């Protein structure tokens, strides 16, 4: 019989193959065969600005394009400096507070590292 590895998430021995993935029926964890929990397969996503510089939590960035604020008639102007950003998962990967606007989410493609 084919020996499949235990689930790296919960340790269950009841794993099965689903196409090219291995699946755990107990915790619903899916992984590629040969990829273990600590080998970097689930490493943090690298977020880069419009110029290709790597962004990190706490960095300051500058807006490089006028951005319309959804749900408002105001516009975030080019050159607006944003301090102390937080990187988050999702479509908008920067979470920040902007003076005069409040809390906002930005896409990294519209900012450059200051």
UniProtKB/TrEMBL annotation:
<dbReference type="Pfam" id="PF03831">
    <property type="entry name" value="YjdM"/>
</dbReference>
<dbReference type="Pfam" id="PF08274">
    <property type="entry name" value="Zn_Ribbon_YjdM"/>
</dbReference>
<dbReference type="InterPro" id="IPR013988">
    <property type="entry name" value="YjdM_C"/>
</dbReference>
<protein>
    <submittedName>
        <fullName>Alkylphosphonate utilization protein</fullName>
    </submittedName>
</protein>
<dbReference type="InterPro" id="IPR013987">
    <property type="entry name" value="YjdM_N"/>
</dbReference>
<dbReference type="InterPro" id="IPR004624">
    <property type="entry name" value="YjdM"/>
</dbReference>
<feature type="domain" description="Protein YjdM C-terminal">
    <location>
        <begin position="47"/>
        <end position="114"/>
    </location>
</feature>
<comment type="similarity">
    <text>Belongs to the YjdM family.</text>
</comment>
<feature type="domain" description="Protein YjdM N-terminal">
    <location>
        <begin position="3"/>
        <end position="31"/>
    </location>
</feature>
């Amino acid at each position: 019989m084919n020996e499949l590895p235990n689930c790296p998430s919960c340790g269950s021995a009841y794993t099965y193959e689903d196409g090219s993935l291995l699946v755990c029926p107990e915790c619903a964890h899916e992984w590629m065969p040969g990829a273990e929990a600590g080998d970097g397969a689930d490493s943090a996503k690298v977020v880069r600005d419009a110029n290709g510089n790597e962004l990190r939590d706490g960095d300051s960035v500058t807006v490089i394009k006028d951005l319309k604020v959804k749900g408002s008639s105001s516009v975030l102007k080019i050159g607006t400096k944003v301090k102390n950003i937080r990187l988050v998962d999702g479509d908008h990967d920067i979470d920040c507070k902007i003076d005069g606007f409040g809390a906002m989410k930005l896409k990294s493609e519209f900012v450059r590292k200051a």
